[in-house]
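Researcher: I'm preparing a figure for a lab meeting and need a structural model of a single chain. I don't have an experimental structure, so a prediction will have to do for now. The sequence is pasted below. Please return the structure as tokens so I can convert it later.
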Amino acid sequence: MKKIILTLLSMALLCSPQAFSSETSLDEMIGQMIMVGFKGNSTLSKGFKDVVEDLNDGKITGVVFFEDNIKSPQALSAMTNAVYKTRMQTRPFIAVDMEGGKVQRLNSKNGFKDYPSALAVSSFETKKAHEIYSDMAETLRGSLFNVNFAPCVDLDLNENSVIHKKERSYSKDPARVSAYAGELINAHHDKAIITTLKHFPGHGSLDGDAHLNFADGTKTHTAVELEPYENLMFKNNLQMVMTSHVFNKNYDDIYPASLSYNTVNGLLRKRLGFKGVVITDDLDMGAIRQNYDLEEAVIQAINAGNDILLFSNREHHNPNLANDVNKIIKNAILDGLINPYRIQESYERIIRLKKNIVANEKKD
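Model: Understood. Here is the structure written out token by token.
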């Protein structure tokens, strides 16, 4: 019976005047909303084979690489080429965190070069910053990455913050942050690489670390932390915003930002006007995993307005994660907990962004 209902829902979506493609099923739309990591560092690793199979089956939209997935430039190239050549009807996202400093997955330990932290870059002239980020973008492009989860546009407002301690912020001044983050964005756009403003609506003012557990920014967050987003989110057509897991009672007294309708749909989309792709921060982080089960996190993240659900899937590795998340979403649609048009809305944004990658590659 459930299969019949899902088929009817798929047909209803495809017959709607907003339907993106007459050949797109509900399963394919859901798959475009899921990005995962994996365990392994070669094309022979079981974890890598699993994500390639998920890509071929349309169960995920792309793959994120971490440092322990990269043992050498040659091994990385073999894996990203395998991802690039999967049977997906759309270009797969191949993503990585590459800010510089303490957050750079490609580095001198695995055969690449090191880049300075955001704080260090901010001591240079903007012209020099652009040169650094152009070289970084060329390195990423050479390994077939098309998404960089950078720049971090959190303001340096608290010496006890993980953002300050790891030199991930350019400055406490939003104008200076916008200027240097803008150089990273421009340099990556020139290489047809998506950049990701993070961690919305700001992680730089609080003591806690959402990587580990609940982090509350209610008493510390200020409107100034939104300024880099207002300055940069419309900079070009390869922009993405990543939502943080920071809780802020002023925006939502129940859910952290990544699961909050008021924060994602209300603040980011309606008030600030962002119409592009929104991706969650890693839903395997302590702030989410220790406070919500997978089902609630997935349903709430989608209903909040996020387009892509990101899972590192490493520390708590689940080889069936893509299947599990797909089932949660489909069952939630059947139970009336997720509107199927919410899925189509995200699908259209994601496909538009993927088409922008291809269009910008042709310009280069």
